[in-house]
Structure formats: C-alpha cells, structure tokens
Amino acid sequence: MVAAGAALGWLRGLLAVGLLAGVYLLAFVLVTVNALFVVLVLWGAFSRPSGYGSWPLVVGGSIAAIFALLYGIATVSRVEQPPPGAVFLPRRHAPELWRLVEELARELETRAPTRIFLTPEVNAAVSEEARLLGFAVGERTLYLGVPLLNQVTPTHLRAVLCHEFGHYAGRHTRFGAVVHRGAASLESALFRLRMTARTRQGVSGYPWFYQLVVGAYAKVFLWVSLAVRRRQELEADARAAEMVGPAEAAEALREVHALGQAWRGFTGMFVQPVQRLGFVPADLFGTFATMVDDPQVRQRLAELRRNPVEANRSWLDSHPPLARRLASIEAQSTGGAHPPDQPPPLVVDPAPVAAVQEKVYGLARTRPTELSPETWAEVAAEAFAIEPAGRLLAAARAVDRSARATLATVLDLLAQGRQDELARRLTEAAEPREQLAEALFALVGQALAGTGQARWVLSWTAGYLLVPGDDTDRGRAELADLEALVTAAAHDAAAVGALRRGLVRRGVAVREPVPLLLRTVSAPAGPTTGVDIAGRLPDFVAEELRRQDSVRRVTLVVLVVLAGLWGITVIGRDDPLDRPPAASNLRTSWPTLPGQQPWPALPGREPGLPSVNDPRWADPAWPHPLSSYFYRPYLDPSNPILDALLLNDAIVVKRGDTLTRIAARRCTTVRHLQKINDMGDRTTIVIGQWLLVPARLGSPGKCD
After folding, report:
1. Long-range contacts made by residues 543-552, C-beta under 8 angstroms, separation at least 24?
2. How are strands ordered across the β-sheet holding 87-88?
3. Which of 20, 29, 36, 205 is the most buried (most CB within 10 A)?
4. How sure is the predictor about 591, in pLDDT bands with cuts at 50, 70 and 90?
5. Is pLDDT above 50 for 58?
6. How far is CA 269 from CA 199, 272, 324, 380, 517, in A?
7. Buried b vs exposed e over 24-45: b needs ≥16 C-beta within 10 Å?
8. Three-state SS for 112?
9. Do 378 and 514 share a structural domain?
10. Radius of gyration for the chain, computed over Cα atoms and rounded to the nearest angstrom
C-alpha cells in the first residue's frame, strides 16, 4: 500500500513538472515567434522605408506585451508566502498543540510540520517547500485558523489534522507546490497582460492576443491540475476516516463547513460594515464566539450541519463537492479509536491570537477604534438602522426635489400614493415594497430613539431590533403596533394618516430633521459618511502601474533609436519615394524567337534601339517600323500568331496617364500591359517612363 502510494505520488509529481514546463515552453514559443516577426518587419522597413510606415506600432506593442508576459512568469516567488494575517506560533505558546501535531504525524507515518501559523479564518491547510521541481523538499508548514481552534471539539480537531497530514502521507504537497508555482505564474502573466491592454500600451493588439493564448493554456492547466487535487482531497478524507472513524470525520467536515459559513457572515455582514465607520470589536474572536453561542444562531448552525449547502461553486474549486466528500467518508466501515474529549488547553498564551487580530485590523487603510464587545454591538445596531433610514431620506429628496428631506416628506409622498416611485429610488430588489417598509421602520425607529423612547440592539439574525427605552411588555406591544402601521403605510396610501397620528401621540416632531448619528459614540453614520477601508489602490496594482511606466520609457527609447536609423536610411536613398527608375521595366535585350532573325547592328554603333529620326532607318538591313514610336522586329511570315503577339509600340508616359487609361486607348487590359512590360502586380508608373503597348492596327480610337 505504501509502495503504491509512493509510485502514485511520483507519477503525479511528473505530471506537475510537465504542466509547469508547459508554462515556460509556451512563453518561449510566443517570445520567439514575436521576435522573428519584429525582425522581419524591421528588415522590410529598412530595405524599403516607404512601404513599412507602421513598424513603430509593431515594435512598440511587442515590447509592452513581451515585458508583461516575461515579468509575470519570472517574478513569481518559488517559496509560498504565508497568507495575510498569519502569525507564527512558537512551541512555548502552545506545547499541547505541538504535541498533538507530532503524535498524529507519527500515527500517519509521515514527517511532522516544522512550523505552525495561526490564521484569521475557519480553515486548516498544509504546505511543503519543494525544490528542484519537487525532487527535494524543505520545511513543512501547518496553517490553523483561530476560530477553528476555538470552536471545534478535540475529536473534530483531530479529524481535521488527520486530513491535512494525509496530504503529507500521500505526497500531495509536492504536487501542489509545483502546480501552485505554475498557476501563480499564469495568473501573474494574465493579470499583467490584462493591465497592459487596458492601459492602452498594447495599441497593436499584442497583449490581447497573448492573453488569449496564455488564458487557453491556463484553462487546460487548471482543468488537469484541479482534477488531481480533488482526487487528493478524497484520499486525505479517507485517511482521516481511518484515524478517527467515518462518523467523526463526516461530522467534523459538517462542523467546519457550518462554522465557515458563520465566520463569513460575521465578518462580511457585521465586522466590515462597522469597520468602514471606523469601529471594531476589541476582541474579534471572542465576539464571534458570542455570536455562535446565540440560540438562534446555534439553531441555524445545526440546520447547516444537517443539510450542508454549497453556494456559488465554481469549476475552479480545488475541493470536490461537499456531498461527494461526505458520501465517500460515510461509505467506509473502519475507523480508529476515540481520544478523550477534554484535553488541556492547546494554546496557553493569548499573545499569538492577539497578534492575528492585530494583523487583521492593520490591513485597513486607517487604524479603526477598538470598542468593547458590548459597546461595539450597540454601535453596530445603530449603524445598521441608520443606513436604510439615510437611504430613504435620500430617495425622498430625489423624488420631491426637496433640499431638506424629513420624516414628514416621506409621509407626504406615501400619502400621495407614490410608494412605487419611492421604492424604485430606494432599491432594485425583487420586493421593493418590503424594502420600503423596512427603511421606513428604520427611519421611524431612529426618530423614536432621538426622543429616548426606544433604542437599537444588535440581532445576529435580523441585524438590528428596536426595543422600548423602559424595556417593558407594554412598550414592546406599542412598538409592535407601530411596526404594523409602518408596514401598512408602505403598501397603502390610506394607512399613512394612522401612522402620522401615532407618531404625533408619541411626541415625534415629523417635520424636524431625523438625527442620523451614532449616539453611542457621537459619530456620524450612513453609507456616505464612513471611512472607506477599500478605497486605496491595491499594492499589486500600484506596483504593476510602476512597472508599466518603466516599460513605457524603455519602449520610447527603442522607438527613438530605430526612428533615427530609419530616417538615415530614408535620406540615404536616391529616390525617397522608392519609385522605379524610368524605363526600368524595359528589357535591354530581346530574346530570339523561333524563326526570328537576331537584331542587326547598325554600322558604327552598338546594337540597341536607334533613334526615330536616325537617317539609317532607310538602311535596307533594318526592318521598316510599324509606327513612329518603335520598330517591328523581323518575323518569319510563316508564323502569323507570333507576328500578332509581338506587334507592340513604345510610348512615353505623360501627365495624367494611368495603366487603366492607357489600356483603354490601346484596346487592351491592365493585366496585359503588366505582362508585356514585366511589371508583375505593380501598377505605379511615372512621367517620362517608357512603356510597351499593343500597336494600333486599326483606326485610332476604335476597338474591334
């Protein structure tokens, strides 16, 4: 079994090496083909300058695209860096955790990790430094999420660790390290090609073409590598089931999935929106534990464990579907022994956990203010209520064109039956009236909170709740009645009057501005007043823009140098327009056809074309000319076809002449003129040039 696993690991390693080699081979082919094309274009530009005026686009576009491709592939680090927010966990801060890790590694007959990092997420992962394309390995690293350590049971933690060490035992990390390098290279190259194209450096289309080719290979690369990685996940699940039992392994997988959903909801729906206002909980992971302990949240987590649902799955997911993993685990019939459920604390020093939280908050653009969990909860509840209330006032201002929208402005619009218009300004949701009712209740509740009759409290399932200031049953009943009036007014204009009267009875001045302030900390709130922590330009984008500036300067220097050399070439030519010399298409000597006598030489001069006015035209040794422009070579009268084909005159090109006009005058075609003048496909003629044309056998100006 071990030998088979090792052989399979080596085969996968060779596959990874082949995929990585394909990345560099593709880059080499693209660069080579591009270089040959550039050399060909430059050779044509310097040999015939007038016909290659577009060479700057070819050279300039090539430089930008090639730099983006090579830089993207060559600058990827060979050593995988820890994720943002990861903190090294020394042995002295968590001796029991290190002991558990080494014990499980021995049971799985594999080398234990040499480093442990804590991360701010519900996840666990392992990596291994792979040198020499995976044939030599270095340090092994285990990544453990702080929320995972705090929330799972010891048995579930053992199952999670056995799954991760199953990757070590199956040599999965070697394949993963090599594949990660190839995937990172492709991703980096595609990003830089895309940025080059969008910043208009690739005006000739090279970045788009390279992006298409590299993107096609990236899809093949990911399709093959991800198929192997999903198979490796199933193998690691099987090893975990062998160690702790199928039931415990499946339950651990369900637990991690449910906690992951809860953590994403906690950070995305609660922490980050309030952090944009500048406030965070002083104990991030303790606040998450408070949310998990909430009865309604516990009920939802139990439902997620019973019916795990995966949303937004993609073909790029490195893990198989959760249902498939659970079915594979539960199909096993063997399992290991159960450890005790109450081990000593795994992390005895809170300093590393605090360092993880410090790194998470340090990623923000501005340093947020840390509040106690209780105060932060009050701020969060107020902020969540103020946000829809502020959007409703903004929508009313847009509909009514009022410079100062108040609660009375909203009630007047509702009384006029303009619910739909107001809802469309407020939201694009499928149920706009429901969103309108929620925003109206938030606005009314904020008005009541301003008078001290109510206050907002945080709800982990609903976001915010309005409770009476005296916290009595009567006050809660009155707020319930008021909520019913708000819902009715959002759907029916006739119910607005009852809502207005109810607010007046409670002493609410509807025509006064509603305070959109965080009363707990005396700070503004709302979608337009907070600190945008995501407004800064990402570091990798800024670095890419700086690289493009450098490439732009290099390209400009190259183009200036080539333009100077090209200009020298143009100036050094006899004819800057690259025109053919006069009569350059006429043959200096004519072949002797069958039955044709060679050209005789006139006495006292070399063989050639005599002048028209030469008195030796009367020499009986010369044939008589057929026209005043040229003479007719002597032909054998017994060959009438050749005689007709060679009946040509020579004319001088004048201003306004073209091949088409000359062909029309001589009752022939442009193609025939090109043929008898040995012009090829060229149609350019110049004034003073000699041309051969068919002789005028008939009446001038008439064609048979």
Report:
1. 544/191, 544/192, 544/195, 545/195, 545/199, 547/67, 547/71, 547/192, 548/64, 548/195, 548/196, 548/199, 548/201, 551/63, 551/64, 551/67, 551/68, 551/201, 552/64, 552/201
2. 87-88, 115-119, 136-145, 124-131
3. 20
4. very low
5. yes
6. 34, 7, 30, 10, 20
7. eebbeebbeebeeebeebbeeb
8. coil
9. yes
10. 42
Comparing 11-20, 143-152, 282-291, 347-356, the range with the smallest average pLDDT is 11-20
pLDDT, residue 52, reads: 60
End position of a domain, from candidates 524, 558, 592: 524
Q: Are residues 517 and 379 in the same domain?
A: yes
Tens-digit pLDDT profile for residues 500-517:
888 888 888 888 888 777
Do residues 500 and 644 share a domain? no
- When pLDDT is cut at 50, 70 and 90, the band that residue 148 belongs to is very high
Q: Could you tell me if 507 and 647 lie in one domain?
A: no
**Tokens found for residue 316:** 């790029």
Residues 201-234: b if buried by 16+ CB within 10 A, e if exposed: bbebebbbbbbeebeebbeebbebbbebbbebbe
Co-location of 647 and 518 in the same domain: no
Q: Is residue 424 part of a domain?
A: yes
Structure tokens at 676: 């008898």
Better-predicted residue by pLDDT, 691 or 135: 691
Beta-carbon neighbour count of residue 294 at 10 Å? 15
- List Cα–Cα distances, 630 to 334, 490, 596, 657, 676, in angstroms: 107, 101, 17, 19, 15
Q: pLDDT tens digits for 521-571? A: 655 444 433 333 344 556 667 777 778 788 888 888 887 888 787 777 767
Q: Is 306 inside a domain boundary?
A: no
What percent of the chain lies above the pLDDT cut of 90? Answer: 17
pLDDT band of residue 598 (cuts 50, 70, 90) is very low
Segment 358-391, tens digit of pLDDT? 888 887 667 788 899 999 998 898 888 888 888 8
Using pLDDT thresholds of 50, 70 and 90, give the confidence band for residue 297: very high
Residue 674 lies in a domain: yes
Q: Amino acid identity of 484?
A: A
**How far apart are the C-alpha atoms of 645 and 694, rounded to whole Å?**
8
**Number of structural domains found in the chain:** 2
Mean pLDDT, residues 32-45 taken together: 85
> What letter represents residue 405's amino acid?
A
Cα 571 to chain center, whole Å?
47
Whether residue 576 is predicted with pLDDT greater than 70 in this model: the reply is no
C-beta of residue 170 within 8 angstroms of C-beta of residue 311:
no
CATH of the domain at 687: 3.10.350.10
Retrieve residue 637's tokens.
């009268």
Using alpha carbons, select from 681, 683, 695, 689 the residue that is nearest to residue 630.
Answer: 695
Q: What confidence score (pLDDT) does residue 585 get? A: 44
Residue 437 included in any domain: yes
Residue 9 C-beta-side C-alpha neighbours within 13 Å? 20
Higher pLDDT, 336 or 215: 215
| Contact indicator for 482, 424 with CB cutoff of 8 Å | no
What are the tokens at 346?
A: 């795994």
CA 649 to CA 38: how far, in whole Å?
A: 45
Q: Model's pTM, two decimal places?
A: 0.69
Closest CA to 183 of 312, 68, 113, 80: 80
What is residue 604's three-state secondary structure?
A: coil
Specify the amino acid at residue 113: P
